[in-house]
Amino acid sequence: MIIKDIRLQADHYPDQLLKKIEKRSGLKAPHWRILRRSVDGRRKPVVKVYTIEAVPQGHPFEERPSLSIPRSTLQERPIVIGCGPAGLFAAYIMAKAGAKPLLLERGKAVEQRQADILAFQQTRILNPESNVQFGEGGAGTFSDGKLNSGISNPLCRAVLEIFAAHGAPEEILYEAKPHIGTDKLIGTVRSMREEIIALGGEVHFEEKVSDLLISQGKICGVIGKQTYPASCVILAIGHSARDTFQMLYEKSISMEQKAFSVGARIEHPQGLINQAQYGSDASYLEAADYKLSYHTAEGRGVYTFCMCPGGSVIAAASEQGGVVTNGMSNYARDEQNANSALLVGIAPSDYDCGHPLDGISFQRKLEQAAFEAGGRDYSAPAQRVEDFLSRRPSTAFGAVNPSYLPQAIPYDLWKILPEYVCRSMAEAIPVFDRRLKGFALPDAVLTGVETRSSSPVRILRDEHLQSLNVAGLYPAGEGAGYAGGIMSSAVDGIRCALKILEEKNGCE
Prior knowledge:
Layout: E1 2-9, H1 14-25, E2 31-40, E3 47-55, E4 79-81, H2 85-96, E5 102-104, H3 110-123, H4 155-165, H5 182-198, E6 202-204, E7 211-215, E8 218-223, E9 227-229, E10 233-235, H6 242-250, E11 255-257, E12 260-269, H7 270-278, E13 293-295, E14 301-315, E15 325-328, E16 337-346, H8 358-373, E17 380-384, H9 385-390, E18 408-410, H10 419-435, E19 445-450, E20 457-459, E21 473-475, H11 486-502
Parallel strand pairs: 4-5, 4-10, 5-6, 10-21, 17-18
Antiparallel strand pairs: 1-3, 2-3, 7-8, 8-9, 11-20, 12-16, 12-19, 13-14, 14-15, 14-16, 17-19
Helix pairs in contact: 2-5, 2-11
């Protein structure tokens, strides 16, 4: 029996939930499990809302359909390029099918990568091949492990189940807004890699693919530290592999410009966000989040993205001489500040100079300007919200201490970001403040620049998920322009793997 819309106050006791289940089901002391749990803060008091499955004691729960993975009949091992969510899940499905994939990742294993990121924060010495963008797990590993998504696909459930089977918290299977947290996601990613290897796959770290071998419109191999023959290649390079995009362009792989967004990270005290969302119930609930959007009078979209409750703003550069921001939270979400990207939509018409990679040039210019403004040592320029709205440079920070490492310095973001971007942000902030009290807090901090929210390039593919002009090449995930976040990227990687397996030797 499925029981929907059980509503209880935020500070309810477990026995109160059981009594509701008994009353709605008509069963005494039933066997039950949570199918979905959410928080409804639209009215006060805040309530938790449950969907429950209940059965009599001794009866089994209804079996849920599981992901069906066909057995591989490929004569040649498939190659997966990139170990972000799309590549990792594609390789995992291939390994479960018995295809023994070869997974090539330019960055390092997640444990070593974590050490390199910490070293960058402490020493300001960037490793361009091991950072927040590159390495096992992709950019999402060092964010918050958010698994909510705008897509509706049955494969989303499979992603959650695979994560949970490899050490992610069990509640991701039923929370309305599931997250793993960077600290726990590191172990989960490592566990998936270990199973891929145990199933006969290979994972090569610090091996960047420098070239593709193409013959008569078909993929026939890739070049990393050596040449690997292949008739099936899943290309899951992520949104920051700019040198690889250049290589693909030179190989005449079909691609096009794509809309993306730029802006800054905005930080508030987490307590302020909790109070705004939950009022007096804040003490009973986990750190609150938010999601806001607005269309300006000029028609530009402004929105918050990758909101990290109880987290920090992190240095996410992957190129020398550029400053990039991102956000992260650990599982507990117990840091002092909340942060979110505050982004403005950028269309190809804003940057088009006639080249498919012009969006990358646009991003790079902003990142280099932020690097110069920060003193050329990876410090990030930051500005109090009150100063930003008044168009005056910040000279000091107030009650909100920027969390960015290695350091945030007071500056004027109007001198870095395009005028229309700043104008759009300035128009949206007071609107967001009316929806979320305190969003325009004078001492809230904007730290820039945020440029890597999505790929500026789409690698074109057909209905079989293959490149338009290279058979056997499967562009996948966020870097290829078909996803936006961990969940949708993982789903896209699974789709590509299943397509290859379903067509059996169709790519050979």
